[in-house]
Amino acid sequence: MIDTGLRWFAAIFCIAGLTHIGAVLLAPGQSRDLAFTGVDTSGTDGRLARVDNSNTAADLDPAFLNAVCRFDSDSGPMRLTGAMPASYWSIAAMADDGRILSTLSREDLRGSDIDLLVGRTAALDAARQAAGIDSIETMSLPVDTGFVLVRLFAGDLDDRSRAEEAFDRLQCRPALPD
Amino acid sequence: MLATLRFILVILAGILLGLVSAWWAVGNLRFEGSRTIGQWSLQNDGAKANPYEAVRAARRGGGGLGPSEGIELTTEVSADGKPLAAACAYLVAGPMPQGVLWTLTVSDRDGRLPGNPARRVGFTSLDAMTFGPARQIRISIGRDVRPGDFVATTGLSSLRLTLRLYSPTLATRAPGPEQLPTVTSLGCEEGEAS
User: Fold this and answer.
1) B8-57: per-residue pLDDT in tens?
2) What is the pLDDT of residues B167-179, one digit of tens each?
3) For A98, which residue in chain B has the nearest alpha carbon?
4) Which has the closest alpha carbon to A94: A25, A46, A142, A48?
5) Does B22 touch chain A (CB under 8 A)?
6) Are B169 and B82 part of one and the same domain?
7) What is the ipTM of this complex?
8) Which residue segment(s) compose the domain that A10 sits in?
9) Domain that holds residue B11
C-alpha cells in the first residue's frame, strides 16, 4: 500500500517537474504581448513605424521616441540609413519575443550618420556583395525574423520635434534588390 | 476503472502542480535572479543565462536596454523594504552617476504611466533639479502636489520606479548603491499602511 502511494506521489512530482520545465521554456515564445509583433509595419514605405505605449506592451522609456523596422526571412537583411540629431540615440535588434540580440549606440557608430546592415550572419555577406557595399556597419544576428528598434532621446519639446524629423528621414529597406 | 481514474488524477495533479510552481517561481521576487544594487534590481532583457529571467523579460514585453545602451534598474520597494504603494508619497533622493544621461519613470507594476494634467511621468538628467556639489536629486512622488520636482501618481493602483542609465560603461561596471538615490516614504493617505 505504501509502495503504491509512494509510486503515485513520485509520478505526480515527475509530471509536475516536466510541466514546470516545459512551461518555463515555452512561455517566452507563447507570450501574448510579444514585443512589437502587434505593430502594423505595413504601408510605411521604407520608413520606421513609431511605437509607444498605445501600440505595444514593450516597456519603453517615455522620455524617448521609439520606432521599429521589421525584418524576416522573406525580406532578408535590412539596410537602415539616415542622419540622427546630436542627442542620445541607440539601435537594438530584437527577436520576436522581445529578447535583445544586439545593440549599438551613438558612441559605437562615432557619428550622426547611420548606414547599417541588419540580418542573419550567413545572409549579410551575400547581401553586401549583391548590393555592392564594401564598407558598412553590420548587426549580425542568430535569427531570421525580428525587429530593429531605434530609440532617440526627446527630453524637451525642441528635442522632440528634432527627433520626429529625424525619424521621418530614417529609411529601412531590404538590402537585397528585388 | 479505479486505476484509470487514479491515473488521470495523478496526471492532472502533476500538470497543475507544475504550472502553479512555474507561475509562482516566475512571479516571486525572492527568486528573482537579477542582481540588486541597494533597493534597485538590475533588469536584463538579454536573459541568456536564466530561463526564468527570459519569462520575466517576455512578461515585461521586451524593450529593455542592451549592453551597448546602458542599464535599467527598477524598484517596487522603499529603502526600508516595504512595497511601494500608490496611495503613499515618496522621496527619491540622493546622487546619480555623473555625466550620464538618466531617466526616472513612475509607473504601475504593469508599466502603465500616471495620467496627470502636466503629463509628467518622470524626470531626466536634463530637467531634474540638483543640489550641492554632488548634484543630488530630490524628486517627490505621490497624489498630493509637493514643492520642487514632483510626479503625481494619479490613476495608478501600484507603484514601480524605473531608473535607466544610458551609458555602456555602466553596463559593464554597474554603479554601487552609494551612487544611486534611495526611495523613502513621506507618509500615506488615511487607511493605507505607511
Assistant:
1) 999 999 999 999 998 888 766 556 656 788 889 887 655 555 777 777 76
2) 888 777 888 889 9
3) B62
4) A142
5) yes
6) yes
7) 0.79
8) 1-30
9) 1-31
